[in-house]
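Figure 6 in text form: structure in, sequence out.
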């Protein structure tokens, strides 16, 4: 599991820059309001709980761990693995791959190869794996949608907090000198809502979407490689087909590695 510390560092850095800019232009304490935090965070989460099942909301802490425990999508190593497996299958037959499955750390690859070894038809394997990929996408989409929706709700509750503050302020206009202070306090909730949504919630949703795309892309590549091995395709052709999934930098890394081995 690859550690990805960039998201929390970026959030902390963004918040730090905002706090520095506030301190340069005014008083930090004028931007603090416990009631505003309660309205924005708890209020928006309450609205979120209305729209999403409790089982999905319970997964939020687990989903957050993915931000710092991102699975490494090493496609170069994947091409190397399939290049090796295809050569073994070509030389010793598909059944010989069963001994190597214990060395493969990816459960998805193991399941696919096990179906091949069991003699299941390619069309059936393709259908089963497509269903699994689609199921994974839908499962992950629920997590994306939670943070995306939360990011839409937070500014709305920030506005609700502002309206509450304005109503309270306008209900007592005896002290005209307090209007400016009251207006500032009322606007703090809008600030919190925009900050919470754009620095935390929406970026998390975007991060999760990108991770899902990477995982789906990798699994599609795996299915392609396994079906080619099952069809008895020449290992060199399989290698060339899988290389098309790599970007130019990854492809160069693979080619350089092959040349170093042969050299």
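Output sequence:
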């Amino acid at each position: 599991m690859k550690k990805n510390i960039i998201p929390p560092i970026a959030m902390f850095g963004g918040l730090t820059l905002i706090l520095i800019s506030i301190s340069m232009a005014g008083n930090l304490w004028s931007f603090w309001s416990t009631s505003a935090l309660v309205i924005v965070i708890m209020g928006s989460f309450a609205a979120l709980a209305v729209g999403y099942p409790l089982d999905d909301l319970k997964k939020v802490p687990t989903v957050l761990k993915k931000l710092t425990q991102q699975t490494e999508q090493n496609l170069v190593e994947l091409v190397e693995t399939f290049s090796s497996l295809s050569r073994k299958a070509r030389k010793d037959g598909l059944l010989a791959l069963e001994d190597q499955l214990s060395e493969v750390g990816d459960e998805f690859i193991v399941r696919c190869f096990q179906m091949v070894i069991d003699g299941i038809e390619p069309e059936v394997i393709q259908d089963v794996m497509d269903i699994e990929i689609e199921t994974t996408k839908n499962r992950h989409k629920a997590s994306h949608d939670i943070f995306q929706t939360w990011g839409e709700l937070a500014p709305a509750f920030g506005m609700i907090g502002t309206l509450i503050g304005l109503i309270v302020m306008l209900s007592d206009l005896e002290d005209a000198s307090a209007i400016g202070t009251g207006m500032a306090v009322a606007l703090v909730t809008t600030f919190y809502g925009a900050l919470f949504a754009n620095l935390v919630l929406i970026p998390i949703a975007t991060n999760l979407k990108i991770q899902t795309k990477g995982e789906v892309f990798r699994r599609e590549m795996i299915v392609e490689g396994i079906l080619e091995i099952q069809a008895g395709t020449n290992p060199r052709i399989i290698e060339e087909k899988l290389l098309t999934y790599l970007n130019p930098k990854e492809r160069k890394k693979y080619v350089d590695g092959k040349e170093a081995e042969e050299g």
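Caption detail: The chain has two domains: 1-32, 33-66+73-258.
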